[in-house]
Specification:
mainly alpha; single chain; Globin-like; 119 residues
């Protein structure tokens, strides 16, 4: 049996690092940073890590809202969505994640687009 994406991304420790780096990029990305001005960075990191861990086959630590509920009414644009995916790719590259895993992560996230953009 092949390893889950969770295992291939470094399990909880690796994914927590990825999520932390990703939040740091998001809050400094001029396209999407305004979305995070009133947010606690540590809370964002914890939620992103738990969501990412659960979504990649790890322990079910995520108890937050689903993507549609989280983004409903935010009117997130295509530009913001692409900026987010760009940050994800940069973060995965920074953390030396292999091409196959990068593609899997981006595939999963792109699949959530209808629950995020203009909802």
């Amino acid at each position: 049996m092949s390893e889950s994406l969770y295992e291939r991304l470094g399990r909880t420790e690796g994914i927590t690092k990825i999520a932390s780096d990703l939040v740091d990029l998001h809050v400094s990305n001029p396209v999407i940073a305004p979305r995070f001005t009133d947010s606690c960075r540590e809370v964002l990191k914890k939620g992103a890590s738990a969501f990412f861990i659960a979504g990649t086959g790890g322990p079910q630590l995520y108890e937050g809202k689903d993507m549609l509920e989280t983004h409903r009414g935010m009117n997130i644009s295509e530009r913001e969505f692409i900026a987010t995916l760009d940050d994800v790719l940069k973060t995965l590259e920074k953390n030396n994640v292999a091409q196959r895993e990068q593609e899997e992560v981006l595939f999963v996230l792109y699949g959530m687009k209808s629950d995020i953009v203009f909802v």
